[in-house]
């Protein structure tokens, strides 16, 4: 629970769903998030950070899965990849 509210997120979602039937599911989730947080700047900042991280790291997830499939090894350009030594990078 946040300090400004005694109600859980699910309560806000149910209340918004009750009175805003024209909103789709994701819009109701979004509106409930703002109602639950109580601070628009904080709610926007946290949600935009989370969405950025999901997209940023999620885009590489399929390639990490493909890299583990043995049948895909024949399509690799580099068999072994070495990270450059730290002292060589910063000379």
Describe the structure.
This protein has 91 residues and is an all-alpha fold. It has a domain at 8-63. It is 59% helix and 0% strand. The chain is built from five helices and no strands. It has helices at 9-19, 25-37, 40-58, 61-67, 86-89. The radius of gyration is 22 Å and the shape is elongated. The mean pLDDT is 86.
The assigned structural class equals: mainly alpha
| Apparent shape | elongated
Terminal residue distance: 51 Å
Number of helices: 5
Largest sheet: none
SSE run = HHHHH
Low-confidence stretches at least 5 residues in length (pLDDT < 50)? none
User: What is the percent of helical residues?
Assistant: 55-70%
Please provide the count of β strands.
Answer: 0
Q: How much is the radius of gyration in Å?
A: 22 Å
The percent range for strand residues is under 5%
Query: Mean pLDDT score, rounded?
Result: 86
User: What is the subunit arrangement here?
Assistant: single chain
Question: Could you write a compact summary of the structure shown?
Answer:
59% of the residues lie in helices and 0% in strands.
Write the layout of secondary structure elements.
Blueprint: H1 9-19, H2 25-37, H3 40-58, H4 61-67, H5 86-89
